[in-house]
Design goal:
The chain is α+β, with helices and mostly antiparallel strands and 361 residues long. It has one domain: 4-Layer Sandwich (Chorismate synthase, AroC fold). It is built from eight helices and 17 strands. Helix 3 crosses helix 8 and helix 6 runs antiparallel to helix 8. The two termini are 42 Å apart. The structure holds ligand EPS.
Length: 361
């Protein structure tokens, strides 16, 4: 089975390459009756898009969504929802020099090893361009989660290289090109990113994603645990090298007495569990932290080989992100929303008759 789909009841399949005529997706299993219009995709697609500041790739795509099926008179019908975005600003000549080369740290080499053929233009299928469709599909998932359960899925950048927030304010996050939660540091971060970009190098990032108001009970032990599926979904994003749920790797050094989230009739006294116990949501906020590696397309020369195995020096020109994590907040939110909606539908299918359980913390 090829693996371009995610989900069990709500199944998203994406297709397309960075420099092909279009990218697209089919979202199947979506409940009928959800109101959706092409304009509603704009906000999140703009949040993810390249070319919105000097700190991202300067490719300028319109990212105009065409709804091809599954929506009638502005409402989902229950039929597969097909969305299409035409690529309008691909510049394939940027890739002519490296078409026979492997960029160190890039999927170039492993795609070649696996398939014996690759579309080198813009990274082809391995390009971050594909994430556009995840974000588009998740606009529907986010809307359903919010309307039905009051769930809000939000993310922010929690670290860029060694640079960490000094304070945290959700209101600051959407007011700067970095999804940065501390307004007073934005100018400094701007300088930091300018220096990275001018040096020709790249830098990694940590992103945090939080879903509030997730009801207790979502997640399917054993192999469909909510945390397992979240981790898998996040790891499917380009450049992701690590995922933590709740306290994550800090759990290694915590004592049990410290890690456990004490319970009172008024609620839990902490959230080291990241809102998930035994693979099932506890009713607390679901929290996830994601590590993005520094982008591998660099204009700094690096040693590599070409398709004949000859030693070469690779230099990548063209339009690239000095920190791909800076555009990834809506992508991480999208993956969390898609996983949550799928789990909600699965919970409804199996446990819809269970009814209200007390106590509710
Ligand atoms: C990308 C390389 C660049 C980015 C692209 C991701 O592509 P190009 O060389 O075609 O400009 O612009 O990102 C997008 C186009 C996007 O929409 O996210 C890569 O190698 O992943």
């Amino acid at each position: 089975m090829s693996m371009n789909s995610i989900g069990r009841i709500l199944v998203l399949t994406t297709f397309g390459e960075s420099h092909g005529p279009a990218i697209g997706c089919v979202l199947d299993g979506c409940p009928p009756g959800i109101e959706i219009s092409p304009e509603e995709f704009r906000h999140d697609l703009d949040r993810r898009a390249t070319g919105k500041s000097r700190h991202t790739s300067q490719r300028h795509e319109e990212d105009a969504v065409e709804i091809l099926s599954g929506v009638f008179e502005g409402k989902t019908t229950g039929a597969p929802i097909a969305l299409l975005i035409r690529n309008t600003d691909a510049r394939s000549k940027d890739y002519a020099n490296i078409a026979q080369q492997f960029r160190p740290g890039h999927a170039d080499y492993t795609y070649w090893q696996k398939y014996g053929i690759r579309d080198p233009r813009g990274g082809g299928r391995s390009s971050a361009r594909e994430t556009t469709m995840r974000v588009a599909a998740a606009v529907i998932a986010k809307k359903w989660l919010l309307q039905k359960y009051g769930i809000q899925v939000r993310g922010y950048v929690a670290q860029v290289g060694d640079f960490k927030p000094k304070a945290f304010d959700w209101n600051a996050v959407e007011d700067n090109p970095f999804f940065w939660p501390c307004a007073e540091q934005v100018a400094e971060l701007e300088q930091f990113m300018d220096a990275v970009r001018k040096s020709g190098d790249s830098v990694g990032a940590r992103l945090n994603v939080v879903a509030d108001n997730v009801p207790a009970g979502w997640g399917e032990p054993i192999y469909g645990k909510l945390d397992a599926e979240l981790a898998s979904a996040m790891m499917s994003i380009n450049a992701v090298k690590g995922v933590e749920i709740g306290a994550g790797f800090e759990s290694v050094t915590q004592k049990g007495s410290e890690h456990r989230d004490l319970m009172t009739p008024e609620g839990f006294l902490g959230n080291n569990a990241g809102g998930i116990l035994g693979g099932i949501s506890s009713g607390q906020a679901v929290t996830c932290s994601v590590a993005f590696k520094p982008t591998s397309s660099l204009r700094l020369p690096g040693t590599s080989v070409d398709v004949n195995g000859s030693p070469i020096e690779v230099v990548t020109t063209g339009r690239h992100d000095p920190c791909v994590g800076l555009r990834a907040t809506p992508i991480c939110e999208a993956m969390m929303a898609l996983v949550l909606m799928d789990q909600a539908l699965r919970h409804r299918a199996q446990c819809g008759d269970v009814g209200e359980i007390s106590p509710k913390l």
